[in-house]
Predict the structure.
Amino acid sequence: MANRTDPAAKSIRGTNPQNLVEKILRSKIYQHTYWKEQCFGLTAETLVDKAMELDHLGGTFGGNRKPTPFMCLVMKMLQIQPEKDIVVEFIKNEDYKYVRVLGAFYLRLTGIDSDVYRYLEPLYNDYRKLRRKSTDGQFTLAHVDEVIDELLTKDYSCDIALPRIKK
Amino acid sequence: MSVTAGVSDAIIAIRDKLRGKIGQTKVKRYWPGKAPEWADDADEDGDIQMARAVALDKAFPSHEDLDIGKRDDPRLRRLAESRIDNREEIRADHRRIRQAEIVSTIEEENRRQEGLDFEEEDEDALEERRRRIREKLLQRQQEEAVLLPEEEEEEVEEEEEEESEYETDSEEEQTGMAMVKPVFVPKSERDTVAERERLEAEERALKEKVKRRLEERKVETKQIVIEKIREDEEIQKNLELEGNIADVDTDDELNEAEEYEAWKAREIARIKRDREAREAMLKEKEEVEKVRNMTEEERREWERKNPKPAQSSKQKWRFMQKYYHKGAFFQSDADDLAATVGSDNIFHRDFSAPTGEDKMDKTILPKVMQVKHFGRSGRTKWTHLVNEDTTDWNNPWTYNDPLRAKYNAKMAGMNAPIAKPKGSKKLKDWESR
């Protein structure tokens, strides 16, 4: 039960939305304690609370490829598929930068090209600092606009292959 | 048998005899629980041996050992009778012999106590044993005391009878059963002593084993504890390695101006990059258009001026070198912005270089061996078209001569040299649309 997508959710890019994340990473997330404890029965509202508690972003780290809570929350969003309005709200909010980045990430994965560009480009102006966890477990400094840039130009970010969009 | 179910067997036997079936063995049916026929005749007193002897006599009447039989008969009879009568006494005899053994151990203990072969190091065990022996002695003395008055009474009455019986019994025993003659065994050779010593040695060994096991277990537990501690330490270390969150400062309030500057630099870099990418695309498109609309001669000039990226000097392949395709994937340029992994150096290798088999010069081989996959079951016998051409060039309509050339020129399709395809107008318009 816990790992199945909402049956009412629509498929993204022709596939189960959870399949956007690769199988290996997906299994790693399912087995992670953060997922098992916190992400059980999350709804859109409670998700916001969890997102506000985030304090770093990143993909997997360590020899074990442990996923970060950021990853788990992305997965959860894919699973419950919040409305576009909610996601836009995430992006528009100014107070919590990690919530913003979370929303941006989700939109990049699931939105159509025009939406992606429309909502993500304004984020270029946000130059706040972010904490980023690299693959060896160390934290590095990053900025919001750098992250957005990565999302828009690169194929691959935070250990998830991003879907192709036009330049 | 079904036919003769109601008829007795005697009648059947008589009938068979009359018919001439003497000597034939008849197989009787077996019922579980019912005694077979030959068993019915034997008497059931309980003397199985007697009965068996009787049956044997019946079956095989022996005329030879009658004399011997007479002599053994009383013995057999006595044996059979003695069996019934003397069972309990024989059992008592057995018991008596065993008790005699224990008595000897007590003597041994006494001897030891005197200190002849004193090898014991454990004084406590020794005292224990002494105590036990004393108790036993006391018990026996008491028993004897109790028995003595009884025995005295009985003895007086039945002394004679007992003695006589005893004597007769012993006589009978001697003649009836085969008994071992009691031989005196010196102390050093007595089995009982050795057995006892062995038992004691075993006990000691057991105790030592238990002690050793305890010690081993102690050592093991210590090791386990050490390992556990080490594991805990490692876990701690790893946790710390994960990196302090406080290492990276994400406080945004600090130095707004600096932040802004940094951001501006980044934005400018990004904008520049975008612009350049766009310009490059435009330029390419223009060039393509221009080249497409040129005529042949201008094109040739153009190409001479802007040669295509110098083709890596093509190596000449050896005779019958195998073709190797380097693969269609993972070919992205190192400069590609979208790609996460640049191409590996291996993709820049020269894939037309000879390897392995190709290094050998195949021209020196005999013609038969100059084929692909020589020796393998999938080898091909045919080489190439020109080689396998079987046209007979002697025919007037195949060999090249001026007549043929004139005819070819007249044939359709052989006139003009093949021109470069111009491309369809529709496709060109599609791009601009």
